[in-house]
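stage 2 :: seqdesign
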C-alpha cells in the first residue's frame, strides 16, 4: 500500500470527519473531529482495503498557546500492508472527554489510562479508567504545561522516620 492510496481511500470514505490530511515524510497524518473518532477507528480496522488491525500507540500533547491546546494522537498499524496512519484529535483544555477505543482495540485500555493519568483526559465507556503511573491520591496531571514544576516534595521535606523509609547508605 502506498501513501496516496491510503489517503484516497480514507478521504473518499470519511470526508465529513476529516479536518485535514497530510503526507508527512511518508506517513499519513489525519486530523479528525473528536465526535467521529470511534466510528473512524472502526472504519480503519474493518475496511478490507486498509485493515489497520493494531493500535500501536496513543499519546497526548499540550500546546497551551493554541485555542485547542490538547492533542491526542493515535498510531494505527496495518500488519498486512506494513503501513501506519496517525490520527490526531484536538480539543480545548476544558473539553476533557474522548470516546474510548477499548471496544475496537484492546490495546487502547492501558494507553487511555496513561493519558488519563498524565493529562486528566477522560475516556467515555472505558472499562477501568483509573491512574496507572501515579498514586490514586496524586493531585494534578504532570504532563500538562501548567502543572507546577515544584509539585513533588524536596528530599529534606520527606519524613525520615516514615514507615518503610530506608536510609540511602543502607540500600
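stage 2 :: out
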Amino acid at each position: 500500500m502506498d501513501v496516496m492510496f491510503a489517503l484516497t481511500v480514507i478521504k473518499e470514505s470519511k470526508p465529513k470527519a476529516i479536518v485535514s490530511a497530510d503526507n508527512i515524510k511518508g506517513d499519513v497524518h489525519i486530523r479528525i473531529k473528536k465526535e467521529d473518532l470511534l466510528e473512524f477507528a472502526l472504519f480503519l480496522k474493518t475496511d478490507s482495503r486498509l485493515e489497520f488491525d493494531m493500535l500501536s500507540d496513543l499519546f497526548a500533547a499540550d500546546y497551551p498557546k493554541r485555542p485547542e491546546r490538547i492533542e491526542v494522537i493515535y498510531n494505527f498499524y496495518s500488519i498486512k500492508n506494513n503501513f501506519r496512519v496517525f490520527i490526531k484529535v484536538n480539543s480545548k483544555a476544558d473539553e476533557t472527554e474522548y470516546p474510548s477505543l477499548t471496544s475496537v482495540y484492546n490495546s487502547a485500555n492501558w494507553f487511555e489510562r496513561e493519558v488519563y493519568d498524565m493529562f486528566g483526559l477522560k475516556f467515555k465507556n472505558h472499562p477501568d479508567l483509573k491512574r496507572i503511573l501515579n498514586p490514586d491520591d496524586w493531585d494534578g496531571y504532570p504532563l500538562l504545561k501548567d502543572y507546577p514544576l515544584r509539585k513533588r516534595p524536596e528530599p529534606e521535606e520527606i519524613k525520615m522516620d516514615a514507615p518503610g523509609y530506608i536510609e540511602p547508605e543502607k540500600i
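stage 3 :: structure notes
- The helical segments are 3-13, 37-46, 108-119.
- The chain has three helices and seven strands.
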